[in-house]
Design goal:
Layout (H helix, E strand, L loop, with lengths): L1 H6 L4 H13 L4 H7 L6 H8 L2 E6 L13 H7 L10 H10 L1 E12 L9 H7 L3 E7 L13 E7 L14 E5 L8 H8 L1 E3 L14 H13 L1 E2 H4 L4 E3 L6 H4 E3 H10 L7 E5 L14 E4 L11 H8 L2 H4 L38 E5 L8 E3 L4 E2 L3 E4 L4 H7 L2 H10 L2 E2 L3 E2 L3 H4 L3 E2 L7 H26 L3 H25 L4 H11 L1
Parallel strand pairs: 1-2, 3-5, 10-14
Antiparallel strand pairs: 2-4, 3-4, 5-6, 7-18, 8-15, 9-11, 10-11, 12-13, 12-15, 16-17
Length: 502
């Protein structure tokens, strides 16, 4: 009945009442003109009453890779369409569109739409509706058998009670920190914040209250986006397609060089994401055979012989392959002895740079001037910039991690470029003597941190390690205070940052 009403409204009683009103004023043109905007056709009135009072749901989890044939339809029919969006995006728009004007829509879905790039059209569209409540469970195991990162969203149509963007009620927002409660309703009431809906940014939604929102806006205005600051020089590590063949230990490295001295030219020191720690000197016993696209492998006979052991697993899958399971690598324009990714920016690895892992529990940035290459679980910022290193390792940046980055199970963050590129970095006014002083001090202290961390890594006596830990903590705290001042934070704002990450 509800769907039928939306498609072909028909109500004899409304038509009869409408005709009575129209007949009463027939011949009285002036009155009709004055009242015409208050007298609606019965179809319009009836259509407003059609639709569901309540819609609730838990959409099936279907990743965008499985939606290939459906994407043209979604693009044509949905305002929330994005080429990388998972299926649940479309449940928002479809569900809310099926409500009546006073109806409520409630859904439990993955929370990544709030920050992910593919969620921007959805965020923009939801801002035009009335978002009543968001309950974010972060990485808590709400569903025991699945890692879902769920959130609950309750919303209604834009035109509910004639609401406009400026008159809509605030959104009730709650970030759930634990599942150890007797009543979700009581937990929400005790921990809720109120967020003005127009404060939500299309680039990503944050559930902080008005004070937090104001602080985040202040930070954004104090700096320029990281992507702009580094001029786009953030690069992912190397994806070989078969680490078993291209990643070797020190013993194999020595054998290859002994067989052919020329092998040394394309064997590079190699890091995994887990090897990168905050301010620490980089160490690893792994090496990478850097067989880039276009390499003349015959110039390196020992390397070719080593790779030949894995030839079947290294073969790229032919595009016209019709057989069963392919035992080699995925299709591509690379040759069997070449790495899978082109890595056209490989020269950036051989410059002074900042390295960080793509999965971490806190900011884990360090400095490298020893030409380390990394796997795809790391990113590099190819700048010799210890001021930036200090900013990125600061507690203020940790606060931004909490507010802007996707949270993974176990309290881990994922600072992928698509999220990280918008972090505000204060650009120094060299004509401002105070800013220049703060800039110089941060560089000096970042250097101190690198030296102290190296000394602690090498220290063997507990007393030495304890003493170095105290020095490290002092220098670390000093950088934090300098960064707070540089971004113009007052005591209340510093308190917000410290309480968020304690």
């Amino acid at each position: 009945e509800v769907f039928k009403a939306k498609k072909s409204p028909s109500n004899l009683e409304l038509k009869y009442q409408y005709q009575k009103v129209k007949n009463f004023y027939e011949g009285t043109d002036d009155l009709i003109k004055k009242l015409s905007n208050k007298v609606e056709e019965p179809e319009a009135v009836y259509a407003a009453l059609s639709g569901f009072d309540i819609i609730i749901g838990n959409p099936p989890y279907v990743r965008q890779e499985m939606l290939g044939d459906l994407k043209p339809y979604f693009q044509k029919h949905y305002a929330v369409y994005h080429g990388m969006a998972d299926l649940y995006n479309y449940f928002f728009e479809k569900g809310i569109s099926l409500l009546n004007q006073n109806g409520l829509f409630g859904i439990i879905v993955a929370n990544k739409w709030m920050r992910a790039n593919y969620g921007e059209p959805l965020r923009r569209w939801l801002k035009q509706q009335s978002v009543k409540q968001i309950i974010d469970f972060g990485d808590l195991p709400v569903f025991q058998q699945a890692t879902a990162y769920p959130c609950i969203v309750i919303a209604s149509k834009q035109t509910e009670y004639g609401a406009t963007e400026s008159s809509r009620p605030e959104t009730t927002a709650v970030t759930i920190k634990t599942l150890q409660f007797d009543s979700l309703k009581e937990y929400v009431n005790e921990n809720k914040k109120f967020v003005s809906q127009e404060k939500f940014e299309d680039s990503g939604w944050n559930l902080g209250n008005e004070t937090e929102q104001a602080l985040l806006k202040k930070l954004q205005q104090a700096g320029i986006p990281l992507g702009e600051y580094v001029k786009g020089k953030i690069y992912r590590g190397v994806l070989t397609g078969l680490n078993e063949a291209f990643v070797i230990d020190e013993t194999v490295r020595d054998i290859l060089i002994k067989e052919d001295e020329k092998s040394k030219e394309i064997i590079k020191p190699f890091l995994a994401g887990r090897d990168v720690k905050r301010y620490e000197t980089l160490k690893s016993n792994k090496y990478l055979i850097f067989a880039k696209r276009g390499i003349d492998i015959n110039q390196y006979p020992a390397i070719k012989k080593h790779l030949a052991q894995f030839k079947q697993e290294l073969m790229p899958k032919p595009k016209d392959w019709k057989g069963g399971e392919w035992k080699g690598r995925k299709s591509g324009s690379y040759l069997w002895y070449e790495m899978q990714d082109a890595i056209d920016y490989y020269e950036e690895f051989e410059k002074p740079k900042i390295i960080y892992p793509n999965i971490c529990k806190q900011p884990e940035f360090t400095y490298d001037n020893n030409n380390w290459y990394t796997n795809q679980k790391c990113f590099i910022i190819s700048l010799d910039d210890k001021y930036l290193l200090g900013i990125l390792n600061s507690r203020l940046n940790y606060f931004l991690f909490e507010k802007y980055l996707p949270k993974l199970r176990g309290g881990f963050f994922e600072p992928s470029y698509v999220f990280f590129k918008n972090f505000p970095i204060k650009k120094i006014d060299i004509n401002n003597s105070r800013e220049k002083y703060l800039y110089d001090q941060i560089i000096k202290l970042a250097d101190t941190m690198l030296q102290l961390k190296q000394q602690k890594q090498q220290a063997t006596l507990p007393a030495q390690q304890e003493q170095l830990s105290r020095h490290i903590q002092y220098a670390d705290d000093k950088i934090d205070q300098l960064v707070y001042e540089l971004y113009g934070l007052n005591e209340e704002e510093i308190k917000i940052v410290e309480e968020e990450i304690k």
